[in-house]
Amino acid sequence: MERPKIKITRLLALLALCCTLLAGNLFIPGKIAEAAAKKTTISATTMTIPVGKMGNKVYWNQNSWELSNAQKLAVKNPVKGATYQYTSSNTKVAKIAKNGGYLTGLKAGSATITCTQTYKNKKTTVGKCKVTVKNAALSVSSYGNQFAVGNGGFNLADYYSALDSLFTITYRNPNATYTLTSSNADFSIKEVKYDASKVKDVTDNKEYQDVLKSFIGSRYLYGYQFTAKKAGTYTVTVKETYNKKTKTLGNFKVEIKDTSISESTKELYVGDYLGAFNLLDYAKENTKYYFDVKDTSVLSLNQDGSDLSFYANKAGTTEVTIREGSEQGTLIGTVTITVIEESSYDYDDFDDYDEWM
User: Please, which domain of life does this record's source organism belong to (predicted)?
Assistant: First the structure.
């Protein structure tokens, strides 16, 4: 009669062991995770900044499309009662206040910022941040530099639409000034700082203004506006002035083109539509153009609001004369348009071909 007691005792012991293991699985990892979460660390281990004093409203272009902003160097999960100190391995390249915060880039190069903790008279290293300081540089687009006579530029809407800027100053020094100088008075260009407050300068559409505001947020970027009085090739030189010293970052060329016809002849099928401005290259903004069709039975000009298009009525050949400004204005050119019937095929021929194959 003793054996059942032994079985019950063993069963109770086994249950107690399972409860202990279960409790360990439930509570021990939680304590470890909690302890790990409270580990004191430095907020960043690498940083790349421009020359100049960083701050909470400092942004710069890493390249033509990517914006970056200054970050504070701080301690995460500091120990209560401990003190922290920051030192730079190369104060000629980068410096920081003893209690941390934003860095100042002094010249191009590298430095290591070390954060130490003093607690109960014991000093330990919390972490290190490798800092790279870069000089401002001129990046020139390889996607084209040709524009029409008149006004143009690159603004917040262009940036939102991922269009290419003619040039970009990367790693801009927030404490420097930058100037753009044209080789000729017939072409002038200036930088413009765009932030959320400038959306009304970009568009009159309220909904689009809200989209741009949401997109840019607290950031800003530098675009540009130019005025070209006549066709020609112009050189723009970019200079930086900092600490009363001026240096040239580089230059780029801009080609300004007169309005011209895109091609002297064009072929359409009966029933085709063609946008009128497809016949022009480098049409000026805010300029009227007049299209005179010689034979409207072959080709008709249709207007829908501000949109102009041609419609191919029947087979034949006609000419379109284009003038700028008025019906008697400057002659841009004449385009010969041939309208042809769309080819028809005898499908029996295709059946014969299939049988032969």
Answer: Bacteria
